[in-house]
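Backbones bend. Our protein:
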Amino acid sequence: MSARIQKYRNRAQTRLDTAPLREFTARFATAEEIENWDKHVTANPNGGNMLQSAAYASVKNGSGWKVRFLVLEGGGNASYNLVLEKSFPVLGRLWYLIKGPDLAGAADLGAALAACAQLVRSSKLKVFTIKVEPDIIDSDEAQRELAAAHLAKAPNIQSNDSTALLDISGTEEEVFKAISSRARNAIRRAEREGCQVVRQEQGPETYRALYDLMANTVNAKGSMPLRSYEYYERFWEEFCNRGQGNFFFAYEDGKPSVGAFVINYGGKATYKDGGSTQNRKQYGDSHLVQWTAIRRMQELGCTEYDFCGTPPAARIKDKTHNLYGMGMFKTSFTKTVTDFVGCHDYILSPLRHRLWVNGGEKVFRRIETARTGQQFY
Protein backbone atom coordinates (compact mmCIF):
# COMPACT_ATOMS: atom_id res chain seq x y z
CA MET A 1 0.00 0.00 0.00
CA SER A 2 1.28 3.47 -0.86
CA ALA A 3 2.42 5.43 2.18
CA ARG A 4 0.21 8.32 1.00
CA ILE A 5 -2.86 6.07 0.92
CA GLN A 6 -2.29 4.88 4.48
CA LYS A 7 -1.48 8.41 5.65
CA TYR A 8 -4.69 9.74 4.09
CA ARG A 9 -6.84 7.00 5.61
CA ASN A 10 -5.37 7.57 9.06
CA ARG A 11 -5.83 11.32 8.78
CA ALA A 12 -9.40 10.99 7.49
CA GLN A 13 -10.36 8.77 10.42
CA THR A 14 -8.76 11.15 12.91
CA ARG A 15 -10.67 14.10 11.40
CA LEU A 16 -13.89 12.11 11.48
CA ASP A 17 -13.40 11.28 15.17
CA THR A 18 -12.04 14.54 16.58
CA ALA A 19 -11.74 17.49 14.20
CA PRO A 20 -14.27 20.32 14.02
CA LEU A 21 -15.17 21.66 10.60
CA ARG A 22 -12.87 24.44 9.44
CA GLU A 23 -13.82 27.70 7.80
CA PHE A 24 -12.15 28.77 4.56
CA THR A 25 -11.59 31.95 2.64
CA ALA A 26 -10.70 32.15 -1.05
CA ARG A 27 -8.69 34.75 -2.90
CA PHE A 28 -6.55 35.13 -6.00
CA ALA A 29 -2.79 34.76 -5.58
CA THR A 30 -0.49 37.76 -5.33
CA ALA A 31 2.20 38.46 -7.93
CA GLU A 32 4.83 37.14 -5.51
CA GLU A 33 2.88 33.92 -4.98
CA ILE A 34 2.49 33.39 -8.72
CA GLU A 35 6.21 34.04 -9.21
CA ASN A 36 6.94 31.25 -6.70
CA TRP A 37 3.94 29.11 -7.61
CA ASP A 38 5.56 25.66 -7.58
CA LYS A 39 7.07 26.24 -4.13
CA HIS A 40 3.59 26.99 -2.79
CA VAL A 41 1.77 24.17 -4.61
CA THR A 42 4.21 21.47 -3.50
CA ALA A 43 3.62 22.61 0.11
CA ASN A 44 -0.13 21.88 -0.21
CA PRO A 45 -1.72 19.37 2.20
CA ASN A 46 -1.28 16.50 -0.28
CA GLY A 47 1.85 17.82 -1.97
CA GLY A 48 0.15 19.33 -5.00
CA ASN A 49 -0.14 17.78 -8.43
CA MET A 50 1.85 18.32 -11.62
CA LEU A 51 -1.39 19.47 -13.30
CA GLN A 52 -1.49 22.38 -10.85
CA SER A 53 2.07 23.43 -11.71
CA ALA A 54 3.44 26.58 -13.28
CA ALA A 55 4.47 24.52 -16.30
CA TYR A 56 0.94 23.27 -16.86
CA ALA A 57 -0.45 26.77 -16.34
CA SER A 58 1.77 27.92 -19.21
CA VAL A 59 0.56 25.04 -21.39
CA LYS A 60 -3.13 25.83 -20.85
CA ASN A 61 -3.02 29.63 -20.79
CA GLY A 62 -4.13 30.98 -24.15
CA SER A 63 -5.30 27.58 -25.40
CA GLY A 64 -8.95 28.50 -25.01
CA TRP A 65 -8.69 28.60 -21.23
CA LYS A 66 -7.89 31.49 -18.94
CA VAL A 67 -5.66 30.50 -16.02
CA ARG A 68 -6.40 31.81 -12.55
CA PHE A 69 -4.27 31.21 -9.46
CA LEU A 70 -6.48 30.45 -6.47
CA VAL A 71 -5.53 30.42 -2.79
CA LEU A 72 -7.73 28.72 -0.19
CA GLU A 73 -6.97 29.50 3.44
CA GLY A 74 -8.34 27.76 6.51
CA GLY A 75 -7.11 26.65 9.91
CA GLY A 76 -3.87 28.56 9.51
CA ASN A 77 -2.96 26.67 6.33
CA ALA A 78 -3.07 27.63 2.65
CA SER A 79 -3.79 25.57 -0.44
CA TYR A 80 -2.70 26.79 -3.88
CA ASN A 81 -4.74 25.58 -6.86
CA LEU A 82 -4.96 26.25 -10.58
CA VAL A 83 -8.33 27.27 -11.97
CA LEU A 84 -8.99 26.90 -15.68
CA GLU A 85 -11.74 29.27 -16.78
CA LYS A 86 -13.74 29.27 -19.99
CA SER A 87 -16.57 31.60 -21.03
CA PHE A 88 -19.66 30.62 -23.00
CA PRO A 89 -22.48 32.66 -24.55
CA VAL A 90 -25.63 32.79 -22.36
CA LEU A 91 -24.23 30.35 -19.78
CA GLY A 92 -21.38 32.46 -18.43
CA ARG A 93 -18.17 30.99 -17.05
CA LEU A 94 -17.09 27.49 -16.15
CA TRP A 95 -14.34 26.95 -13.56
CA TYR A 96 -12.28 23.77 -13.63
CA LEU A 97 -10.14 23.14 -10.54
CA ILE A 98 -7.96 20.59 -12.25
CA LYS A 99 -6.87 17.91 -9.78
CA GLY A 100 -8.08 20.15 -7.00
CA PRO A 101 -8.81 21.54 -4.60
CA ASP A 102 -5.88 20.11 -2.65
CA LEU A 103 -7.23 19.75 0.87
CA ALA A 104 -6.36 17.84 4.03
CA GLY A 105 -9.48 15.70 3.63
CA ALA A 106 -12.95 15.34 2.18
CA ALA A 107 -14.48 17.02 5.24
CA ASP A 108 -13.00 20.34 4.07
CA LEU A 109 -14.66 20.27 0.64
CA GLY A 110 -17.93 21.96 1.57
CA ALA A 111 -16.34 24.90 3.34
CA ALA A 112 -13.62 25.34 0.70
CA LEU A 113 -16.12 25.39 -2.16
CA ALA A 114 -18.43 27.75 -0.30
CA ALA A 115 -15.45 30.11 -0.07
CA CYS A 116 -14.90 29.76 -3.83
CA ALA A 117 -18.56 30.62 -4.42
CA GLN A 118 -18.22 33.71 -2.25
CA LEU A 119 -15.15 34.83 -4.24
CA VAL A 120 -17.05 34.32 -7.50
CA ARG A 121 -19.99 36.40 -6.26
CA SER A 122 -17.88 39.22 -4.83
CA SER A 123 -15.83 39.39 -8.04
CA LYS A 124 -19.00 39.26 -10.20
CA LEU A 125 -17.52 36.52 -12.39
CA LYS A 126 -20.83 34.88 -13.37
CA VAL A 127 -19.50 31.33 -12.91
CA PHE A 128 -22.32 28.79 -13.27
CA THR A 129 -20.41 25.65 -12.23
CA ILE A 130 -17.12 24.82 -10.52
CA LYS A 131 -15.78 21.49 -11.76
CA VAL A 132 -13.53 19.77 -9.18
CA GLU A 133 -11.52 16.53 -9.06
CA PRO A 134 -9.63 16.43 -5.74
CA ASP A 135 -7.08 13.71 -5.12
CA ILE A 136 -9.22 12.30 -2.33
CA ILE A 137 -9.27 8.51 -2.15
CA ASP A 138 -12.73 7.09 -2.71
CA SER A 139 -14.42 5.63 0.36
CA ASP A 140 -17.83 5.55 2.00
CA GLU A 141 -16.79 8.47 4.21
CA ALA A 142 -15.56 10.47 1.21
CA GLN A 143 -18.87 9.86 -0.56
CA ARG A 144 -20.77 11.14 2.46
CA GLU A 145 -18.68 14.31 2.49
CA LEU A 146 -19.22 14.82 -1.26
CA ALA A 147 -22.96 14.56 -0.74
CA ALA A 148 -22.80 16.96 2.22
CA ALA A 149 -20.93 19.45 0.00
CA HIS A 150 -23.79 19.20 -2.57
CA LEU A 151 -21.49 17.92 -5.32
CA ALA A 152 -22.95 16.26 -8.42
CA LYS A 153 -20.98 13.48 -10.10
CA ALA A 154 -19.69 14.39 -13.55
CA PRO A 155 -17.80 12.27 -16.11
CA ASN A 156 -14.15 11.86 -15.19
CA ILE A 157 -11.69 13.87 -17.28
CA GLN A 158 -8.18 12.90 -16.20
CA SER A 159 -6.77 9.44 -16.90
CA ASN A 160 -5.41 8.91 -13.39
CA ASP A 161 -8.60 9.16 -11.35
CA SER A 162 -7.86 5.45 -10.99
CA THR A 163 -4.18 4.68 -10.94
CA ALA A 164 -1.33 2.55 -9.64
CA LEU A 165 0.81 4.27 -6.99
CA LEU A 166 4.19 2.91 -5.91
CA ASP A 167 5.86 3.95 -2.67
CA ILE A 168 9.49 4.71 -3.60
CA SER A 169 10.49 6.26 -0.28
CA GLY A 170 12.64 3.28 0.70
CA THR A 171 16.04 2.24 -0.58
CA GLU A 172 16.48 0.99 -4.14
CA GLU A 173 16.73 -2.55 -2.79
CA GLU A 174 13.57 -2.18 -0.71
CA VAL A 175 11.57 -0.80 -3.62
CA PHE A 176 12.83 -3.54 -5.95
CA LYS A 177 11.74 -6.22 -3.47
CA ALA A 178 8.32 -4.58 -3.18
CA ILE A 179 7.43 -4.92 -6.87
CA SER A 180 6.07 -8.21 -8.19
CA SER A 181 8.28 -11.17 -9.07
CA ARG A 182 7.04 -10.87 -12.67
CA ALA A 183 8.36 -7.32 -12.93
CA ARG A 184 11.64 -8.20 -11.20
CA ASN A 185 12.20 -11.15 -13.53
CA ALA A 186 11.47 -9.00 -16.59
CA ILE A 187 13.94 -6.33 -15.44
CA ARG A 188 16.69 -8.85 -14.69
CA ARG A 189 16.24 -10.65 -18.00
CA ALA A 190 16.35 -7.40 -19.96
CA GLU A 191 19.58 -6.46 -18.18
CA ARG A 192 21.11 -9.93 -18.77
CA GLU A 193 20.30 -9.77 -22.45
CA GLY A 194 22.01 -6.40 -22.83
CA CYS A 195 19.04 -4.05 -23.03
CA GLN A 196 20.06 -0.53 -22.08
CA VAL A 197 17.95 2.48 -21.18
CA VAL A 198 19.16 5.91 -22.21
CA ARG A 199 18.15 9.25 -20.71
CA GLN A 200 17.67 11.75 -23.51
CA GLU A 201 17.91 15.51 -23.36
CA GLN A 202 14.96 17.67 -24.35
CA GLY A 203 14.69 18.83 -27.93
CA PRO A 204 12.80 18.28 -31.19
CA GLU A 205 14.50 14.97 -32.00
CA THR A 206 13.58 13.54 -28.59
CA TYR A 207 10.05 14.90 -28.76
CA ARG A 208 9.44 13.45 -32.20
CA ALA A 209 10.85 10.06 -31.19
CA LEU A 210 8.49 9.75 -28.22
CA TYR A 211 5.49 11.10 -30.10
CA ASP A 212 6.00 8.54 -32.88
CA LEU A 213 6.14 5.74 -30.30
CA MET A 214 2.96 7.03 -28.66
CA ALA A 215 1.21 7.18 -32.05
CA ASN A 216 2.36 3.64 -32.78
CA THR A 217 0.84 2.40 -29.53
CA VAL A 218 -2.44 4.28 -30.02
CA ASN A 219 -2.78 3.02 -33.59
CA ALA A 220 -2.17 -0.55 -32.45
CA LYS A 221 -4.26 -0.58 -29.27
CA GLY A 222 -6.47 2.50 -29.36
CA SER A 223 -6.38 2.75 -25.58
CA MET A 224 -6.07 6.52 -25.19
CA PRO A 225 -6.71 9.55 -27.42
CA LEU A 226 -3.62 11.30 -28.73
CA ARG A 227 -3.36 15.07 -28.83
CA SER A 228 -1.44 16.90 -31.56
CA TYR A 229 2.35 16.84 -31.72
CA GLU A 230 2.37 20.61 -31.08
CA TYR A 231 0.52 20.14 -27.78
CA TYR A 232 2.98 17.54 -26.50
CA GLU A 233 5.95 19.55 -27.73
CA ARG A 234 4.82 22.53 -25.66
CA PHE A 235 3.91 20.35 -22.69
CA TRP A 236 7.30 18.60 -22.60
CA GLU A 237 9.18 21.84 -23.21
CA GLU A 238 7.50 23.66 -20.32
CA PHE A 239 8.27 20.92 -17.79
CA CYS A 240 11.81 20.33 -19.07
CA ASN A 241 12.63 24.02 -18.94
CA ARG A 242 11.84 23.93 -15.20
CA GLY A 243 13.92 20.82 -14.54
CA GLN A 244 10.78 18.70 -14.06
CA GLY A 245 10.77 16.60 -17.24
CA ASN A 246 12.70 13.40 -17.94
CA PHE A 247 12.90 11.22 -21.08
CA PHE A 248 13.88 7.55 -21.06
CA PHE A 249 14.33 5.33 -24.13
CA ALA A 250 15.19 1.73 -24.91
CA TYR A 251 16.49 0.92 -28.40
CA GLU A 252 16.18 -2.07 -30.71
CA ASP A 253 18.14 -2.38 -33.94
CA GLY A 254 19.43 1.15 -33.39
CA LYS A 255 15.97 2.72 -33.22
CA PRO A 256 13.82 3.84 -30.26
CA SER A 257 11.55 0.94 -29.27
CA VAL A 258 10.18 2.05 -25.86
CA GLY A 259 9.94 5.62 -24.58
CA ALA A 260 8.67 7.33 -21.45
CA PHE A 261 8.29 10.89 -20.21
CA VAL A 262 8.28 11.13 -16.40
CA ILE A 263 7.66 14.29 -14.35
CA ASN A 264 9.27 15.02 -11.00
CA TYR A 265 7.14 17.52 -9.11
CA GLY A 266 7.82 17.96 -5.43
CA GLY A 267 7.77 14.53 -3.82
CA LYS A 268 5.70 12.99 -6.61
CA ALA A 269 6.84 11.37 -9.82
CA THR A 270 4.33 10.83 -12.63
CA TYR A 271 4.73 8.55 -15.64
CA LYS A 272 2.90 10.97 -17.89
CA ASP A 273 3.49 9.75 -21.46
CA GLY A 274 4.81 6.59 -23.06
CA GLY A 275 4.78 4.44 -26.15
CA SER A 276 6.47 1.55 -27.88
CA THR A 277 6.85 -0.30 -31.15
CA GLN A 278 4.93 -3.53 -31.55
CA ASN A 279 6.32 -7.09 -31.78
CA ARG A 280 9.66 -6.25 -30.19
CA LYS A 281 12.36 -8.91 -29.81
CA GLN A 282 13.66 -7.64 -26.46
CA TYR A 283 11.89 -9.08 -23.43
CA GLY A 284 11.38 -6.83 -20.41
CA ASP A 285 12.49 -3.60 -22.09
CA SER A 286 9.38 -1.67 -20.99
CA HIS A 287 9.83 -2.87 -17.40
CA LEU A 288 13.47 -1.80 -17.48
CA VAL A 289 12.50 1.65 -18.76
CA GLN A 290 10.17 2.08 -15.80
CA TRP A 291 12.69 0.74 -13.30
CA THR A 292 15.34 3.14 -14.64
CA ALA A 293 12.86 6.02 -14.32
CA ILE A 294 11.94 4.99 -10.76
CA ARG A 295 15.58 4.99 -9.67
CA ARG A 296 16.12 8.41 -11.24
CA MET A 297 13.03 9.77 -9.46
CA GLN A 298 14.43 8.48 -6.17
CA GLU A 299 17.65 10.39 -6.89
CA LEU A 300 15.58 13.54 -7.43
CA GLY A 301 13.91 13.14 -4.02
CA CYS A 302 10.53 11.73 -5.05
CA THR A 303 8.83 9.35 -2.63
CA GLU A 304 5.83 8.28 -4.74
CA TYR A 305 5.59 7.09 -8.34
CA ASP A 306 2.25 7.49 -10.12
CA PHE A 307 1.86 5.20 -13.14
CA CYS A 308 -0.92 7.57 -14.26
CA GLY A 309 -3.94 5.60 -15.28
CA THR A 310 -5.50 2.15 -14.87
CA PRO A 311 -9.01 0.75 -14.94
CA PRO A 312 -10.87 1.19 -11.65
CA ALA A 313 -9.99 -1.38 -9.00
CA ALA A 314 -13.25 -3.25 -9.59
CA ARG A 315 -12.42 -3.64 -13.31
CA ILE A 316 -8.67 -4.16 -13.24
CA LYS A 317 -9.06 -7.71 -14.65
CA ASP A 318 -11.84 -6.81 -17.10
CA LYS A 319 -10.42 -7.49 -20.56
CA THR A 320 -13.11 -5.34 -22.18
CA HIS A 321 -11.82 -2.17 -20.49
CA ASN A 322 -9.82 0.04 -22.85
CA LEU A 323 -7.01 0.36 -20.29
CA TYR A 324 -6.82 -3.37 -19.48
CA GLY A 325 -3.37 -3.89 -21.04
CA MET A 326 -1.93 -0.79 -19.40
CA GLY A 327 -3.46 -1.82 -16.11
CA MET A 328 -1.86 -5.27 -16.21
CA PHE A 329 1.55 -3.77 -16.94
CA LYS A 330 1.34 -1.05 -14.29
CA THR A 331 0.02 -3.34 -11.56
CA SER A 332 3.01 -5.62 -12.10
CA PHE A 333 4.86 -2.91 -10.16
CA THR A 334 2.22 -2.28 -7.52
CA LYS A 335 -0.81 -4.50 -7.03
CA THR A 336 -2.97 -1.86 -5.38
CA VAL A 337 -5.18 0.26 -7.62
CA THR A 338 -6.10 3.58 -6.04
CA ASP A 339 -9.50 5.00 -6.95
CA PHE A 340 -9.92 8.72 -6.32
CA VAL A 341 -13.37 10.29 -6.09
CA GLY A 342 -13.09 11.65 -9.63
CA CYS A 343 -14.78 14.66 -11.19
CA HIS A 344 -17.77 16.45 -9.64
CA ASP A 345 -19.70 19.64 -10.30
CA TYR A 346 -20.32 22.30 -7.65
CA ILE A 347 -23.39 24.03 -9.02
CA LEU A 348 -23.72 27.79 -8.59
CA SER A 349 -26.57 28.34 -11.06
CA PRO A 350 -28.94 25.34 -11.29
CA LEU A 351 -30.66 26.60 -14.43
CA ARG A 352 -27.47 27.28 -16.38
CA HIS A 353 -25.95 24.02 -15.13
CA ARG A 354 -28.97 22.10 -16.46
CA LEU A 355 -28.49 23.78 -19.84
CA TRP A 356 -24.83 22.73 -19.71
CA VAL A 357 -25.40 19.05 -18.92
CA ASN A 358 -28.48 18.73 -21.13
CA GLY A 359 -26.64 19.48 -24.33
CA GLY A 360 -24.67 22.69 -23.85
CA GLU A 361 -21.41 20.96 -23.02
CA LYS A 362 -21.72 18.58 -25.96
CA VAL A 363 -22.39 21.44 -28.39
CA PHE A 364 -19.54 23.62 -27.15
CA ARG A 365 -17.10 20.71 -27.12
CA ARG A 366 -18.02 19.89 -30.72
CA ILE A 367 -17.55 23.52 -31.78
CA GLU A 368 -14.21 23.78 -29.98
CA THR A 369 -12.86 20.57 -31.51
CA ALA A 370 -13.95 21.62 -34.99
CA ARG A 371 -12.40 25.07 -34.55
CA THR A 372 -9.07 24.06 -32.99
CA GLY A 373 -8.65 20.36 -33.71
CA GLN A 374 -7.78 19.93 -30.02
CA GLN A 375 -9.44 18.17 -27.13
CA PHE A 376 -11.76 20.36 -25.08
CA TYR A 377 -10.28 19.76 -21.61
User: Anything to note?
Assistant: The chain has two domains: 3-158+343-372, 162-338. The CA atoms of residues 37 and 54 lie 6 Å apart.
